[in-house]
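Quick one: co-fold with zinc ion.
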Amino acid sequence: MNEFNDQILSAKYAELFVDQHVLKFDFFEFECGDGWLGLLDGTMFLIKKNSEENGVRIKLVQVKEKFGRLRIYFQGGDEYTRTVVDMAEFVSEEICELCGSPGDYHKAHGWLQARCIEHSLETISPQKPDFAWQKHGSLYAEAVKAIFSMFKQHSMSWMQSPALAFGGGFHTSC
Ligand SMILES: [Zn+2]
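Sure, here it is.
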């Protein structure tokens, strides 16, 4: 992620980061493309809110792209945190890591990547950063909250069997 975006997210969710990272770089380094900004913003909003409201101790250790998917490593947290993180990692497959447009998870240029059609065809430089991700982040957080309230007590088991919850319509990639 470019440093500007690293710094914005680091400042917005400062209490979620391990101190040594912030001391070393002055900000947390997100080791993934800027297309996942909105997804990360929405995810960290939910994690921070849960931490504040329920006194859950949580520190993000590393956030990176691995095998084309978002990976979030953390210390502490609770079942809610785990589910929110699982969902973000799952959803990242469908969001272009470079520009944030709807994308797909496929092999391109020899690597597994989450890319929109445009970015899967060529190695195009990412779009200039804009602030649409802030809107995407809050919309995403709202959507996750709505899903959790829909499944209520089953929400925590939802991630283990999304295919069952949605009548077999989802693919899983274990
Ligand atoms: Zn794209």
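If it helps, Strands lie at 30-31, 58-66, 69-76, 104-108, 111-115.
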